[in-house]
Design a protein that fits this description.
The complex is a heterodimer. Chain A is of the alpha/beta class. Chain A is built from nine helices and 17 strands. In chain A, the strands form three sheets. Chain A has a nine-stranded mixed beta sheet with strand order 9-8-7-10-6-1-4-5-11, sandwiched between helices. Chain A has a five-stranded parallel beta sheet with strand order 14-13-15-16-17. A two-stranded antiparallel ribbon of chain A has the order 2-3. In chain A, strand 13, helix 6 and strand 14 (224-227) form a beta-alpha-beta unit. The longest helix of chain A is centred in the last third of the chain and has 16 residues, at 299-314. Chain B is of the alpha/beta class. In chain B, strands 7-11-6-1-4-5-12 form a seven-stranded parallel beta sheet, sandwiched between helices. In chain B, strands 8-9-10 form a three-stranded antiparallel beta sheet, with no helix packed on it. A two-stranded antiparallel ribbon of chain B has the order 2-3. The longest helix of chain B is centred in the N-terminal third of the chain and has 15 residues, at 37-51. Chain B is globular, with a radius of gyration of 22 Å. Classes of the chains: A alpha/beta, B alpha/beta. Chains A and B meet through helix 4, helix 5, strand 7, strand 8 and strand 9 of A and helix 3, helix 4, strand 7, strand 10 and strand 13 of B. Strand 17 (293-296) of chain A pairs parallel with strand 14 (237-240) of chain B. Bound molecules: flavin-adenine dinucleotide and adenosine monophosphate (AMP).
Chain lengths: 315, 260
């Protein structure tokens, strides 16, 4: 069977859920070979084995972490030359897409980004034009390079005990010309990661700047908090939580939009959510065209009452 | 300093965007289009650099006849010159081929600083800047939410999921800016009048020493096999909260659907 490279997404050895999803997808296409960049591969090993990695290629050159994406693309090119994979899967983060972009040029290969499903072929499914169309595509030249969105597969365990192979890469000076000179970690909120959450409660301009009711309702449901661009631009909530075309694309089981009108650019980031709920005081708001359940009312009244009711039912 | 802004002409997001049934490519001719809003941030970033130093700003676009509007908008905002690469063979190019055309044009323009938007509002892959940087062998600092250019040093703030990083590089360099980077200016009346006299060059593939078989649909390394319009969502239940029962009904809905 052919090898399928999966670039592992991790923070210091803790493997992110997207990697389990990629490994699950890779098994449909061939034998998953995980490429691990950075320290901590031993910590990551159990998780990689659990989802079926047959081998783990570990790259520990320090340059790979100090600089931006260019060295990682060079490293993957060298790994690909050795492994000769039939496809390369990378998560669709900003960094993942740039690595994929550079790799596509290096390997003279077709690139598909933001796949929401990948099946044998590989044939990919993407959601385009604000989720109004579904497109199926394939790569016709070179090694298919596919970036895959979070939540595109349900991770399925397939226990293996992969060997770790240390692989030494050579990084050119040219790849080291853009460097990270400072890094301020984002504060943890204790809430689920936006792109991975099963439930998201988002607030918009209708919050009037008070995200308290949105956060409280989210916490009662164990949800992540999102925001519209209007709320972000007003400085009410950090940009990292923006949902939409220029924010995150999310596809949770449940999306609750509170005080959000439902502009096309916001829809672009949430339209594929399984169930959509809105609270908006304007019954004409376009968001109501999308909903499974909508409440026409003031979010400052509806959300706190709903929070109380949820808390009561759960206890 | 020579600054080139890569700006794309895209179908209007608020209009009815669609695919051409004959070849599954984005219909760019049959719908209204405009300069991608996200590339306005790139134009603005370039103009700001120019205001703080000595620079010439050129707007570069690759696209069909109507794409001249994207160049025009850039000139109206304050760019000095425009280049429009247009050739029948370009239709159907994917990101890899588009990056080849842009890279050739940028070499010809001898750009010191190349500014991109964070992604086009139609394709939205956000990969062209990295591809162009790769082809030109230039450093890339991408998705800047704050940009400072000091001499030959370009510094950006880049807000990631886990951290907010400061990233630095030296000219010549590829930069892309997010929609957090600035507030794009509106063309003034004076700007609109002045734009009419600014030079715009039109280049064909031959001008870039490229041949038709290197780009376009034949050289696209991805193929769309099927396009399906998303079925409209079935109308949901909408309740009014006038009597204060909205929250209870909402929670009942969540409970029935097993979200609690
Ligand atoms: C290139 C581009 C990219 C963009 N990217 C994004 C993006 O990524 N994400 C995004 O969200 N937007 C994006 N936008 C902006 C988008 O077009 C809208 O402007 C934005 O989504 C509006 O946010 P909103 O719904 O919160 O505000 P509004 O449209 O002002 O809507 C506020 C809503 O709140 C309701 N409301 C007010 N008070 C209350 C109350 N007390 N209780 C209940 N409801 C109340 C109102 O009835 C209204 O429907 C983008 C725009 C462009 C041009
Ligand atoms: N046809 C084009 N002409 C000029 N610039 C382009 C073109 N396509 C993409 N770009 C630039 O590349 C950026 C990213 O595009 P994309 O990778 O398509 O999302 C855009 O914001 C533009 O700055």
């Amino acid at each position: 069977m052919s090898n399928v490279l999966v670039l592992v997404d991790h923070t210091g050895g803790t493997v992110r859920k997207t990697t389990a999803e990629l490994l699950t997808i890779a098994r449909r296409l061939g034998e998953p070979v995980a490429v691990y960049i950075g320290d901590g591969v031993q910590d990551a090993l159990p998780a990689l084995g659990q989802y079926g990695a047959t081998k783990v290629i570990a790259l520990t050159n320090p340059e790979l972490s100090q600089y931006l994406v260019a060295p990682k693309a060079e490293a993957l090119q060298q790994v690909a030359a050795k492994v000769e994979p039939s496809a390369i899967l990378i998560s669709s983060s900003a960094e993942g897409k740039e690595i994929a972009a550079r790799l596509a040029v290096k390997l003279d290969s077709g690139l598909i980004t933001d796949a929401v499903d990948v099946q044998e072929g590989p044939v990919t499914t993407q959601s385009v034009f604000a989720g109004n169309y579904t497109v199926q595509a394939k790569v016709t030249h070179g090694t298919p390079i596919i970036t895959v969105k979070p939540n595109s597969a349900t991770p399925e365990a397939a226990e293996t005990s992969p060997e770790v192979e240390e692989f030494d890469v050579t990084i050119s000076d040219a790849a080291k010309t853009a460097r990270i000179t400072d890094s301020k970690p984002r504060e943890a909120t204790g809430r689920p990661e936006l792109t991975e959450a099963a439930i998201i409660v988002s607030g918009g301009r209708g919050t009037g700047g008070d995200f308290g009711p949105v956060e409280a309702f989210a916490d009662s449901l164990g949800a992540a908090v999102g925001a519209s661009r209007a709320a972000v631009d007003s400085g009410w909530y950090p940009h990292a939580y923006q949902v939409g075309q220029t924010g995150k694309t999310v596809s949770p089981q449940l999306y609750v939009a509170a005080g959000i009108s439902g502009a096309i650019q916001h829809r672009a980031g949430m339209q594929t959510s399984k169930t959509i709920v809105a609270v908006n005081k304007d019954e004409e708001a376009p968001i109501f065209e999308l909903v499974d359940f909508g409440v026409v009312g003031d979010l400052h009244k509806v959300l706190p009452a709903a929070t109380e009711e949820v808390t009561k039912r759960k206890s | 300093m020579k600054i080139v802004v890569c700006a794309k002409f895209v179908p209007d997001a608020t209009a009815d965007r669609r695919f051409r049934s004959e070849d599954n490519t984005v219909d760019r001719a049959g719908v209204d289009g405009l300069l991608s809003e996200l590339d306005e941030y790139a134009v603005e970033a370039a103009l700001t650099v120019k205001e703080n130093g000595d620079a010439e700003v050129t707007v570069l676009t690759v696209g069909p006849e109507q794409a001249a509007d994207a160049v025009k908008k850039g000139l109206q905002m304050g760019a000095d010159a425009g280049v429009h690469v247009i050739d029948d063979a370009i239709h159907g190019s994917d990101a890899v081929a588009t990056s080849l055309i842009l890279a050739k044009a940028l070499s010809k323009l001898e750009a010191d600083l190349v500014v991109f938007g964070m992604g086009s509002t139609d394709g939205g892959m956000g990969v062209v800047p990295a591809m162009v940087a790769e082809r030109l062998g230039l450093p890339a600092v991408t998705l800047g939410s704050e940009v400072t250019v000091d001499g030959t040093t370009v510094k950006i703030r880049r807000d990631g999921d886990l951290a907010s990083d400061t990233v630095e590089g030296t000219l010549p360099l590829v930069l892309s800016v997010s929609d957090q980077a600035n507030e794009p200016r509106y063309p003034s009346f004076k700007g609109i009048m002045a734009a009419k006299k600014k030079p715009v060059e039109t280049w064909s593939l031959a001008d870039l020493e490229l041949s038709g078989d290197q780009v376009g649909q034949a050289a696209a390394w991805t193929e769309v096999v099927e396009v399906t319009a998303r079925p409209p969502r079935t109308a949901g239940t909408i309740v009014a909260d006038e009597d204060g029962s909205g929250a209870a009904q909402l929670v009942e809905f969540l409970s029935t659907n097993k979200f609690l």
